Amino acid sequence: MKTDQTNLRSFIDHQKMTFLQYSTILLCFIMNMLDGMDVLVIAFTASSISAEWDIGPQALGWVFSAAVIGMTMGALFLAPQGDRIGRKKMILICASIMGVSILATSFASNVSWLVVYRFLSGLGIGGMLASVSTLTSEYAPNRSKDFWVTLVMGGYPIGAVFSGLVAAEIIPNFGWRAMFQFAGIATLVTIPLILFFMVESLDFLVKRRPANALQKVNRILARMRIEELNVLPLLERIGKPGSVTTLFRGELKKQTIMIWISFFMAFATLYFLLSWIPKLTTEAGLSERLGIYSGTVFNVGSFIGAFTAGSLAIRFGLKRMILIFMILATFFMSVFGFFSGSSGVLIMFGLVGFGMQGGFNALYPVAARLYPPEIRTTGVGWCIGAGRLGAVIGPIAAGYLIGAGVSIGMNFIIFAVPCLVSGIVVYLIKSDNLS
């Protein structure tokens, strides 16, 4: 059958995946691993920095907040540019920003510069998250798209675990600056890989039509063993690429509001867990060492959950799996208090990570499916941006609750509520592209 404007996507959806598709998805997974490593590197170095500079928790709070603000700005304003200049270029820009700023952090001489560098690295991380999930969705066949996007987003906790293992070896022997140097160089090393092995999105080339678009499309199709096009498909534009107002046109308006609510609620719960797990572990009566391990157990459970949710979504539907995994997370968080003071807390952290991240990571393919190619990176980026607001509010609210004497078990019950709301809201989204 001749490849033409009507069946190009059908070829990708129905033929076996090629080496080009696997390698593109692998690179996206690696970049998301680096996101996880680059976010958590400050958590592992904070104690050493505080001791060397004799700074208090208030100053460190600004450092932590700078990264979150940067990630929010990156998702809202940097990521949408991927709909204008292309996914590959945006990933390349974000990797460069991340690598240079993280490496530069090792030369910081005071808190002010540390805040600047963490903001810049957050900017790159925020743009990267939206870009890699979008590119993955556009090279994955429709039948397994949810699995691949969820798996790629599962690279984030793997990067966090790897960062902790490396930090345990580097920081005691070489100091905190060496850890930032390692993370920065590891990120910069991926730039040649992006340049030479990552390909631009076919959807972007067909819809946006940069210079020599037909030739670029045909080179990619040849590597995917798909017959070349004689002409590019007909255009059906729905709005200006990169414009957030396009997310609220027609049926997209209700869907956008609902997915934003879901991301906001999920981020609030997730960042409560990420921010307070070590502290809550020690307050539960376990040693500081076990407090550190708790974060690792949580992230290992998170990756297993993401892999499992993505695999099951192929058979049982994406929205249904998100709801089930969020219900599981809600249950595990609700009974968490019964395990305080015992080593069973570690097992519970793994189970909470399994349910929470399994459902959370599956939100990304939902966002990717909701929006057409012209505004896909914009749509995913603003979902992440809405979620980041929850990431800011969640840990702050938890701090007030803990300060007011609310028990550990009750904190987990309280933050189980937005987790459940997230699953219910996304399940209620109506779209022909979602099951």
Give an overview of the whole structure:
The protein has about 425 residues and is mainly α. The chain has two domains: about 1-235, Growth Hormone, Chain: A (Up-down Bundle), CATH 1.20.1250.20; about 245-435, Growth Hormone, Chain: A. Helix content is about 75%, strand content about 0%.
Q: Which residue ranges are poorly predicted, with pLDDT under 50 across at least 5 consecutive positions?
A: none
**Helix content class:** over 70%
CATH homology-level superfamily of the largest domain = MFS general substrate transporter like domains
**Can you give the mean pLDDT?**
88
**Overall CATH architecture of the largest domain:** Up-down Bundle
Number of structural units classed as domains: 2
Percent range for β-strand residues: under 5%
Based on CA atoms alone, the radius of gyration comes out at 21 Å
Largest sheet: none
Query: What is the CATH top level name of the largest domain?
Result: Mainly Alpha
Query: What does the overall shape look like?
Result: globular
Total number of helical segments? 19
Distance between the termini: 29 Å
Q: Secondary-structure element sequence?
A: HHHHHHHHHHHHHHHHHHH
